[in-house]
Amino acid sequence: MSAAWQFYVITLAVYFGINLIAGWSLHLQYGVTGIQNFAFIIFQSIGAYVAGVTTIGSNARAFGETIIFGANFPWPVSLLLAGIAGAVLAAFVGTFALRPMSKDFQAIVMIMVSVIATSIVESQGGLFNGSQGIAGVPKPFGGFLGLGIVQYGWFFVGLTSVFCALTFFVIHRITSSPYGRTLRAIRENPTSAASLAVPVRKETMIVFIVGGAIAAVSGALLVEFIGAWSPSAWGIYETFLFLVALTIGGIGNSAGATLGIAVVLTGILDGVNYLPTFGTGTLSAALQLMGVGVLIVVCLWFRPQGILPERRRIIGASSESLIASESDSAAHRWGSKVSPAAVRPSTAEETFDSEPRKSEISPISGVIRPRPNEGLPIREALILNGVTKRFDGLQAIDDVTLTVREGTAVGLIGPNGAGKSTLINLIAGLEHPDSGSIVYGGHDISRLAPHRIASLGLVRTFQLSSEFQRLTVIENLLVASRTQRGNTMGQALLGKRRWRTEESENIERARALLHRFELSRLTDDYAGELSGGQKRLLEIARALMANPHCLVLDEPLAGVAPGLREEVEGHLVALRDEGMTLLMCEHDLGTVERCTDTVVVMDLGHVLAVGTMNEIRQNEEVIDAYLVS
């Protein structure tokens, strides 16, 4: 092979490796975690710039360049500094770009950050040498090895391959661990993830910083290979190309990301760039754009999920759990469906201040683990005192005072617009009260984030379907196992041996819960494919997997087909009878009567009445409120 063709192959190999490193970092952020990082290219660019100015030394003066800082640090110090710069920039951008959970907000902010950063760098000639960039960046070990151009090129291919292997090792360890499952849950539904004690913003920021550092290292390798850096080559168009590559290859799949980068970036773009010149320069660029455009259209039409879409993760089971899930014998059942005949109405003697039932959960011991109380039992699990909330002048909650005692089931009813869902959101931390206090288990939770409240044992379900759609049914439950090893990035990087045992135990618990709620046959189905009633059962089972001491249910029967309503209702009654503290908002008064001990009626943001359903039926204010509504 001639030297020219060897150098062509070398260039493609190096670019492919560098693009892989960068693409895998964006895959972790965008494909796995769902971060809308449309400013991705600036992190690669800052790594390239830092690596350049920390190695260029006296070459900067020789080329007449004006830069902030010029040094001659040995390799790999420059690479390390580049990674640190990418991480610091990501931490800065993430403080404002990742604050809300809205993906639309993230995308818009990231685009603006990319445009502003490029404009500043190109306009500040005294700081970054303006649009001319920098040149004369020395190659790692270039003088020390004494190799020719082609030989050094092959050396750099090997160097790039080493960093590719290290990056793949990190990405694979993360994505194949319980932590990776948590990141995918954040991608699917960050609000639901937070309700299961997942610190969404913290984990998103960690991934953003790690991805920024990896992208910066890829930029450093690139500038050390080509020996120059120009801000015009790091525009938002380059970010778009990386996103196209991930989309075509398959979002959420490392193999898909690799394939997309090989086809789009290396094959169509770099492959054409370094071929012998033919026609005009504009023709070559036009062919590139045409190739990318045709590929996008074809994939979106015939394969919208990508060539290699994210695979369904099938979680293995032990023979014992398989026997338990398939057997109809009572000896293998963790909990029985409660028949309609067993669903009893509340009696007049069961008042709001009645003694709570026994808190032992013996029928499902080993499946649901009640949180132990330190010292004396908590007699008042949840206390709201003078809680108010306004939205743009509208008084949504008006001086609500309410107590839910441990081991009791309380129903929350009222006409539409009464403030029930707002009150649930205040208790769960999605909203914060303007005044008053909310105390749970002796802790003031008025200003706590949802994940902090969930970690204390108060777990909620949602009015609208809130499953993690592209996670399987059993994965939905496993996300709620927050205390197991492997649920942090550090533990994930330590490998499977660190968390395998606890993962197996939680899989058994999850399968037992699925069996209890008669969802075993759907274990490996995507949660987004379930019916409305099945999703409700899954959400309740998922909440129980989090070991709650108090379960807050926001319209658990909303959208459930009549055939499954009795089944869902039966499970709620079973939980009540087993001692779970429940606060349930529900429109169906019959369900409230059968599933709860006490009823709280709300109207126009305040508590109208408290008592048993029989007492509520005779309350004239309650009758008037429902008639008016």
Describe the structure.
With 629 residues, this protein is of the alpha/beta class. The chain has 25 helices and twelve strands. The strands form three sheets. It has a six-stranded mixed sheet with strand order 8-9-10-5-11-12, with helices on both faces. A hairpin with a 2-residue loop joins strand 11 and strand 12 (606-611). Residues 318-378 have low confidence and may be disordered.
How are the secondary structure elements laid out?
Blueprint: H1 3-32, H2 40-53, H3 59-62, H4 77-97, H5 103-123, H6 125-128, E1 134-135, H7 142-145, H8 149-175, H9 178-188, H10 190-195, H11 200-226, E2 228-229, H12 236-249, H13 254-273, H14 281-302, H15 319-326, E3 380-391, E4 394-405, E5 409-413, H16 420-428, E6 435-440, E7 443-444, H17 450-455, E8 458-460, H18 473-479, H19 489-493, H20 496-516, H21 532-545, E9 550-554, H22 562-577, E10 581-585, H23 589-595, E11 598-603, E12 606-611, H24 613-617, H25 620-628
Parallel strand pairs: 5-10, 5-11, 8-9, 9-10
Antiparallel strand pairs: 1-2, 3-4, 3-6, 6-7, 11-12
Helix pairs in contact: 1-8, 1-11, 1-12, 1-13, 2-4, 2-11, 4-11, 9-18, 12-13, 13-14, 18-21, 20-21
